[in-house]
Amino acid sequence: MSNNKGVIFAYDEAQNLADNAAKDEYPLSVVVGYISIITTRWTATIVSVNWLTHFIPQTG
Description:
Layout: E1 6-11, H1 27-41, E2 44-49
Parallel strand pairs: 1-2
């Protein structure tokens, strides 16, 4: 058993994250702030943010 401790942060569908100041909603800022906190508190940190790109044209 290893005594190493760390954090794995995985977020899927990240393309849906966006701040909306007009509605006072800041989910993107919350996620970025959280990642900042966990990377300074734990030396072993893995961050995986996955999104679908909307810049690739659909084929078929």
